[in-house]
Amino acid sequence: MKHRRESSELGGRPSTSRWSRLLRASWQWPLALLILFEEWGWEPLQRALAWLGEKLGLTAVADWIRRLPPYAALALFAVPALALLPIKLLALWLIGQGRALLGAMVILATKVIGTAIVARLFTLTQPALMRLAWFARLYARWRAWKESLLAWARASAAWQAARLWRRRVRMQWRRWRGSWS
Asked: Hey, how many other C-beta atoms are within 10 angstroms of the C-beta on 128?
């Protein structure tokens, strides 16, 4: 406690505050980026999978999934994780064999496919899942936590700089494209 008192008497912040901010930022940024990837991919991938299901004549399967009772709908989420696990293990094996680029591509493809499947399943099962009181409570807490994490990331200087850079690139691209038209 003496250290904290001395630190605040000198007008500085306690050193634990700096370390806790550094520790928090070390996991917040990767987590925020992962959630942003999910956010950006969730709806378009879900729609793409819905479109593919319609083209392949799988609307009866979607209707069956919508009619599942809550706990059966919840169990359905284990299917993508179990189905994609061997592919992820294959990717790790490829990396271990010195084929890191191929392994990373397999992991990335698996992530995109997994996100599409989980997004589609959640869209189809959300009404049933929300009938589980504990799930609805956890989902509301998850959404609130996720929104606060995304608000933190969006308010950061890095995020603002990236948005400005993206805007400039888009304007430059439009000018360049317009000069060719």
From this structure: 20
Mean pLDDT of the chain: 84
In 3D, which of 61, 106, 71, 76 has the Cα closest to residue 88? Answer: 106
On the 0-12 / 13-18 / 19+ scale of CB atoms within 10 A, 49 is buried
- Asked if 105 and 35 count as a contact pair (C-beta separation under 8 A), the reply is no
Residue 103 is classified by DSSP as: H
Instruction: Please report which confidence band the pLDDT of residue 181 belongs to, taking 50, 70 and 90 as the band edges.
Output: low
State the pTM of this model. 0.67
- Using the 8-state DSSP alphabet, how is residue 130 labeled? T
Ordered DSSP codes for 147-167: HHHHHHHHHSHHHHHHHHHHH
Tokens of 171: 């304007």
State how far the Cα of 168 lies from the Cα of 180, in Å rounded to an integer.
19
